[in-house]
Amino acid sequence: MMPARQVLPTHFSFAAPDAVYGVLETSEAAERLCSDLRQLGFGEAQVLHGPKGLHDLDEDGSHHGPLFRLARLLQGLTREREFIEHYASQLYAGRAVLNLRISGHARLAELREAFQRNGRRAVNHYSRLTVCILCP
């Protein structure tokens, strides 16, 4: 099992470096994907699942203080809110959400293939002010 990293609720496009989020059916599938990504030389990924995953995602910012509540409020003015709600709904449904920080777009095709090999449901690449759907 990988060590947990703190995910800050401002992780989406206006405040974050490049990140990829993908939904998988189970935390076990997400852990297999993490292993695959490590073998490919990608950095450490975080798997969100269950109540802890919902806490870390912090849909409304209530678990990380007033600045994060403000960040969520601002995200509510954009489409980012839809993405945050989508990941929360997937966690509520018992699925896992994998979060991986990446650098640039150079290896997105390789990353897409890794998600596809491991049973992804939906994968998006977030960068400043843009969202790219890697796997529908």
Keywords, please?
5 helices, 5-stranded antiparallel β-sheet, single chain, 136 residues
Q: pLDDT under 50 segments (min length 5)? A: 1-10
Strand order of the largest sheet: 2-3-1-4-5
Order of helices and strands: EHEHHHEHEE
Backbone structural class: alpha+beta
Set down the secondary structure blueprint:
Layout (H helix, E strand, L loop, with lengths): L18 E6 L2 H13 L5 E4 L1 H8 L8 H10 L4 H13 L3 E6 L6 H10 L2 E8 L2 E6 L1
Antiparallel strand pairs: 1-3, 1-4, 2-3, 4-5
Describe this entry's structure for a reader.
- The chain has helices spanning 27-39, 50-57, 66-75, 80-92, 108-117, and strands at 19-24, 45-48, 96-101, 120-127, 130-135.
- With 136 residues, it is α+β, with helices and mostly antiparallel strands.
Structure described in brief:
This protein is 40% helix and 22% strand. It has helices at residues 27-39, 50-57, 66-75, 80-92, 108-117; strands spanning 19-24, 45-48, 96-101, 120-127, 130-135. Strands 2-3-1-4-5 form a five-stranded antiparallel sheet.
